[in-house]
């Protein structure tokens, strides 16, 4: 018997091999963000293709699809977006309240994806695995002091844009430590200490090297400082520094 992580990796490999040899599509359940590297390794080793989808662009938790031919369409993934709504005048359940209420139904964590706020105040979207959606609709009644109303959503849910501010910085290079130093107004040695202390994550995985080269779309998380996303590289400035656009989350 292996650890839970080892068993999960073994399941990924089995699904990738099945998809590569038998054709069709093999889906996982919802995975932790840090499993992406294992998914890509399983697909590569098996000679399968890989797609990831959590219900919307930028989802942290996702379902992996291993396939041999054409990529599966987004609507074919076994997930259901459910609207959770409440009277915002009398209650304001946070993410922890909503997740706790869902998990209180006795579900496994891999049955639940992200919970994201909708455009309308007093509502959120729960991305659930298709095989537990009806159970949630029938049994979830409240979160904390908030009474909930639930319904299944059709099509792309109208999610609220993330809260934050756009930044434009310049840095001597695209190195992780250089970009963080410029964005957080720290010295290079201070950012290196944060990395060495295990306080920095890149795309949900612990960043181990300050000299790692960043890519557009990378998500950076620094404990005590918040989260940043690399939006674009704008080329060299007149002083020979790299122009970089970031989004800094404030919500």
Task: Describe the 3D structure.
- This protein has 251 residues and is of the alpha+beta class.
- 27% of the residues lie in helices and 33% in strands.
- Helix 1 (4-22) packs parallel to helix 2 and helix 5 crosses helix 6 (188-196).
- The radius of gyration is 20 Å and the shape is globular.
- The mean pLDDT is 93.
What is the chains' assembly state?
A: single chain
User: Would you identify the regions where 5 or more consecutive residues have pLDDT less than 50?
Assistant: none
| Series of secondary-structure elements, N-terminal to C-terminal | HEHEEEHEEHEEEEHHEEEEE
How are strands sequenced across the largest beta sheet? 10-15-14-13-11-12
CATH topology of the largest domain: Structural Genomics Hypothetical 15.5 Kd Protein In mrcA-pckA Intergenic Region, Chain A
Number of domains: 3
Largest sheet: 6 strands, antiparallel
Any guess at the CATH architecture of the largest domain? Answer: Roll
Total number of strands: 15
What distance separates the N and C termini?
42 Å
Under CATH, the homologous superfamily of the largest domain reads RNA-binding S4 domain
Shape: globular
Range of helix content: 25-40%
Our estimate of the beta-strand percent is: 25-35%
